[in-house]
Every structure is written in C-alpha cells, then in structure tokens.
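General statements about sequence and structure are easier to judge against a single worked case. In the encoding step, the backbone of a single protein was reduced to a row of integers, each denoting a local shape. The record that follows shows the chain in one-letter code together with its fold in token form.
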Amino acid sequence: MTTPLTLETIRQAPKALLHDHLDGGLRPATVVDIAGQVGYDGLPATDPEELATWFRTRSHSGSLERYLEPFSHTVAVMQTPDALFRVAAECVEDLAADAVVYAEVRFAPELHIEGGLSFDAVTDAVLAGFADGERRAAAAGRDITVRCLVTAMRHAALSREIAELAIRFRDKGVVGFDIAGAEAGHPPSRHLDAFEYMRDHNARFTIHAGEAFGLPSIHEAIAFCGADRLGHGVRITDDITVDPEDPDGPVRLGRLAAILRDKRIPLELCPSSNVQTGAVGSIAEHPFDLLARARLRVTINTDNRLMSDTTMSKEMAVLAETFGYGWTDLQRFMVNAMKSAFIPFDQRVAIIEEVIKPRFAVLVG
C-alpha cells in the first residue's frame, strides 16, 4: 500500500542534495554561541528564535544583492578552525536527520580568512568537520556521504587560486569548484582562467547562473566556461515558449534551452530561495514543473537552510503540493541529483541502486 505523501512521510525519503551553502545553513543557536565566544557583537538578536526569524524575514528581500547581506553575520562567526569544524559537523548532522544520504556542500574559503587562516587551513577544518559529522550521523543510524565544493566569489579576483585549491584537495573530499555572488556586472567569463585550470585537470565545476541575470549569464556559463551544472538557472525560461491558452500543453525550446536539455546539463533549482531573491514571484510561479515537463534535468535543493528556514523535505513537500507530484516523481528528482553528482560513476550508481530506489520502493508500497 502506498504511503500517503505528507511532510512527515517525505522526511523518511532518501535525498540527494547538490546545492547547499555552508554559511547559509548554520543553527541559530550556534551563531549566538560562537559570537559570544569570539566577541562578535554585531548580531541583530541574541535569542536563537528571534535570530532565526530575523534571518528569514531579512532574506525575503526580492533582490539577490539584499538577500546576500545577512551572510555577513554567519561569515563573521566562521573565522576560526574550531568554528568551521563545528559548523561543518552540525551541517552534516542536520542533513542526515532529514534523511539526506548524499550532499555536496559548498563554501567560499576567501570569506573565512579574516582571522589569518590560509585557504588550506580553512578547507582542512571544514573537511574534518564533515568527516566528524558523518561519523556522528552513522552512530545515530543515519548514513550519509558529504563532499565539498569550494566557491570563488565572482566579484573578486581569487578564482584561479580557489580552483588550484580544489585540485590540491580533490582526493581529500573536494569534488568540484563553483563561482557565486551577485551576477549583474560580474559575468562568469571573467573567470575563464579558473575554469580552464579545472578542465586541464579533468575536474568538475558548477556555476551560479541564470538566477538574478538572464540568458547571457547562462550562455556564457555553458558556451564559454564549459560548466558541468548550473546553480539555479531558472531564467532559462526566457528561452522557452508556452502557449498562453494552454499553459500545461507542449513547450517549445529555444537553442540555449535545447542544448541544456540535450546535453543533460543539470539545473540546481532552489525553489524557496528563488522566491526570496525575487527570481520568481511565488512557488506557484516557479518554473520547476515547466522545466521538468520539458525534460530538462531538474534537481531540488535547499540553497541556504537558515535563510530560507527550509530543509530538503520542506522543498520536496511544497513542490509536491503545488504541482501534484507523487513518490515516483520525487524519486526521479533524487535520481537526477545523484546522476549529476561530482563523485565517480560507480559510487553514484551504488547510492541510486542500493539506497535511493530501495527506500523509495518501501514508500511506494
């Protein structure tokens, strides 16, 4: 008998997550605790519940630039090895508690050197935290594999150094590279040397594109930079035509949208975050279902769990409620994510065949 599809039952489903920012997913109590330890007095609230509310409401800004402003507080408490270790370990525990079985969590090392740490020291602390979090989760009966993406800020000039960092740590838990930050005025092609370095070393990378800026950003990420995946990419809908009299009918893809579909370039879609930044007006207006119907490779992601007050279960539940998805649909989206992960093929297949499909089969009945 099929298990009813509710938020509670979705929490039991195995999940694969590709787009989650470490500095956007701290526990509010941890932010308060570390701030007290390091003497950071800039928090807008010191009660964890009040702080959580502040992050959520401030982030719901309708602008990517304003959405990014609250990160100054989380980054401020992530400047020591102990803090980075703790945040990373708790991140893994929180994901595992939501039945995430595979996750790629990203962070920007250049944001965590104000206390004098090197890029390598920052990355060592985060990876050690991930490993400890995996051990804690396993001890609690929740196996999870977490890998890391190192991110360069697109407005800065450190992307080549961060790409080199990714390669130095590629056998220690870093599986890829990313650029992030405000898109307008900072095209991905400015970082070509970093992407060329990654390709020269047969390494994988994703690019934030098509969130706050349109098709040119996506085009550059694919045609010039050679991205393996796209962070967000919701503005690809500018290259998709739907009959206004039959919105649920056939769709026509332009050349850029067609190449994303044909090359199976994954879209790391983050529904709640996309509403907060103004990329879309509401979940009901989110193009997730349109893109899924057009057979682009869509994946479900959290982006920033603290800022959006979300989890993978919440993202899956709101999409299921809005678009009428069932267990088979949710399984397909999780398999999409695992197919698109930056770990080796045999490891991806093992998680799909030995974890995701069997556990979904129990829910389907």
Notes: The mean pLDDT is 95.
